[in-house]
């Protein structure tokens, strides 16, 4: 496995890969790797001849009161995990290597960044956009792999790639969870034993939500309230947000109309603090249609905007 | 010469060039080509195996009251000029092709865009940054060629390329002028015969300025005033700005200190309206040192910050 600590080394290595026409998959990370990252590496290995991993804790995407200084690091363990997952090259730049001077260029994605973590962490996605853009230019991958745990990040990066005609395919990959459901995160190590045990309410709430979503007449307001109520059963949980939005544009939806009226994909996303540790999780809600009993268009039109409560065959 | 009107066509063509390992030079333009553009194409031909030209009048870099709707066009003449200069491929997208949806991503370069045309044309360089970034991603050139007539644009793009680690070398090329000195511009066709004849004051003023700059004790305030005075001899000229700044960072300099105290490269840039037509021009000011008489460091240190007025050997 090749380790590059400078842009020049990386560019030389990438030029060698491209010269032989190898397809390149790229997994950008902030290190302290876990099975979620490993699943991205394996997906990249499946789809590309070469897999490149980057490990860089990007100061620009941390706010002044966030956990930049204590973000966990373990380079030796990260490199072992990368090698055991078949990574071909790792880019491990210092902050000075990535930002030799203060960048004057900013890269911002409007609208999609107004909500969720964009609202809670001002400037966060500007920092993400800038560093991902730099890494894409340095690595020039055919495909780049991102975990859906950061669903908003995936949406922001897909918009940036599309708007800027970046020649890379973004491949979103499923959230990887602990056996009890907690989404894997480098930040989970911050949790005390008690917080760790309480944190299971997050994935539980999302799981319940996918059932509640199927209930006739359920609306966004009630669904969010039910999720918040479930999370609040954990005494240490302090909710930052619980929001149901359209995906991937993250537009708001009516809080009171039945969710059955909405045909766009929906993202239920949450951020919750346990002590100083802020965890995020989410799921995409999909309607489970019972094919045998589905109504035809005429019958639906006969009862516009109401009556779904008595038509359980539209829901599970 | 290959003509591509869609991104897909262009990408396919570029992939074919890259497959054979050809180096690619790129000349992005807004069309209505003149000898200034031709000089960029020839420079690209000199330095690369393949030269790609783009012609796209980018609506995002025009303000609401600017000349987008009347910007001159002559596709047949442009293609003939490109072909006669040995261009290999031309990218000629429609606005809908370049912007199928309203971009949510913005790309801004701070500081360098605060002055000159950035101040006179708010949002102009954001539009330039976005479209140049898109074109760079689509063409993926080794080198890109820009005329120094748009010196601020060159500085903005160089900063963007550096900040974002874009894998392209920016090659600034000298301003091409009419025999009487007027800088070539697609907008020159807007000028009436009378305005065209008056417009010679711009290049004259810059030429004088490079002499005035050598005068002992000359400072920014006086130099700018002298340039403005010369331009105001043309009765139709309405000055937008005349500014002396450091180049390429476009930082301000002391208005009153002798210019001899400043060791950084200086840009003298101007924008002047003749009727509805806004023309820009500029020159880099360089001190003409008389090598035989140049002082050594000790002598300079002996008279810090003053006394240069009596040392003509430092100037021409």
Strand percentage of chain A lies at: 15-25%
User: Strand order of the main beta sheet of chain A, please?
Assistant: 1-4-3-2-6-7
Write down the CATH topology of the largest domain in chain A: Rossmann fold
The run of helices and strands of chain A is EHEHEHEHEHHEHEHHHEEEH
- For the record, the CATH class of the largest domain in chain A is Alpha Beta
The tally of structural domains of chain A comes to: 2
**Uncertain spans of chain A, ≥5 residues at pLDDT below 50?**
291-316
Largest sheet of chain A: 6 strands, parallel
Q: Can you give keywords for this protein?
A:
homodimer, 316 residues, alpha/beta, Rossmann fold, Pantoate--beta-alanine Ligase, Chain: A,domain 2, 2 domains, 3-stranded antiparallel sheet, ATP-binding (chains A, B), pantothenate biosynthesis (chains A, B), cytoplasm (chains A, B), pantoate-beta-alanine ligase activity (chains A, B), Pantothenate synthetase (chains A, B)
Topology:
The structure is a homodimer of 316-residue chains.
Chain A: E1 2-4, H1 7-19, E2 24-29, H2 35-47, E3 50-55, H3 75-84, E4 89-91, H4 95-98, E5 105-109, H5 116-120, H6 124-139, E6 143-147, H7 151-163, E7 169-173, H8 193-198, H9 200-212, H10 220-231, E8 237-246, E9 266-274, E10 277-285, H11 297-302
Parallel strand pairs in A: 1-4, 2-3, 2-6, 3-4, 6-7
Antiparallel strand pairs in A: 8-9, 9-10
Helix pairs in contact in A: 6-7, 9-10
Subunit structure (chains A, B): Homodimer.
GO molecular function (chains A, B): pantoate-beta-alanine ligase activity
Protein name (chains A, B): Pantothenate synthetase
């Amino acid at each position: 496995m090749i380790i590059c600590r400078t842009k020049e080394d990386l560019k030389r290595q990438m030029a060698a890969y491209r010269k032989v026409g190898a397809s390149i998959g790229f997994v950008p990370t902030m290190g302290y790797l876990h099975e979620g990252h490993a699943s991205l590496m394996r997906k990249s290995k499946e789809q590309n001849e070469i897999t490149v991993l980057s490990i860089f804790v990007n100061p620009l995407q941390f706010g002044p009161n966030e956990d930049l200084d204590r973000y966990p690091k373990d380079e030796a363990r990260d490199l072992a995990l990368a090698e055991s997952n078949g990574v071909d090259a790792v880019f491990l730049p210092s902050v000075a290597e990535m930002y030799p001077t203060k960048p004057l260029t900013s890269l911002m994605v409007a609208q999609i960044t107004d909500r969720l973590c964009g609202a809670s962490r001002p400037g966060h996605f500007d920092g993400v956009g800038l560093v991902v853009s730099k890494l894409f230019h340095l690595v020039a991958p055919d495909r780049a792999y991102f975990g859906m745990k950061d669903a908003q990040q995936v949406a922001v990066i897909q918009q940036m790639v599309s708007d800027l005609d970046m020649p890379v395919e973004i491949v979103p990959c499923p959230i990887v969870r602990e056996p009890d459901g907690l989404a894997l995160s480098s930040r989970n190590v911050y949790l005390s034993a008690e917080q760790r045990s309480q944190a299971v309410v997050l994935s539980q709430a999302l799981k319940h939500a996918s059932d509640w979503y199927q209930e006739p007449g359920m609306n966004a307001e009630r669904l969010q309230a039910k999720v918040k109520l479930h999370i609040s059963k954990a005494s240490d949980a302090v909710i930052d947000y619980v929001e149901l939005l359209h995906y991937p544009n993250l537009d708001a939806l009516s809080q009171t109309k039945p969710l059955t009226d909405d045909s766009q994909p929906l993202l239920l996303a949450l951020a919750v603090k346990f002590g100083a540790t802020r965890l995020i999780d989410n799921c995409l809600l999909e309607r489970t249609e019972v094919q045998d009993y589905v109504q035809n268009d005429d019958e639906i039109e006969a009862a516009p905007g109401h009556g779904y409560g008595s038509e359980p065959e539209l829901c599970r």
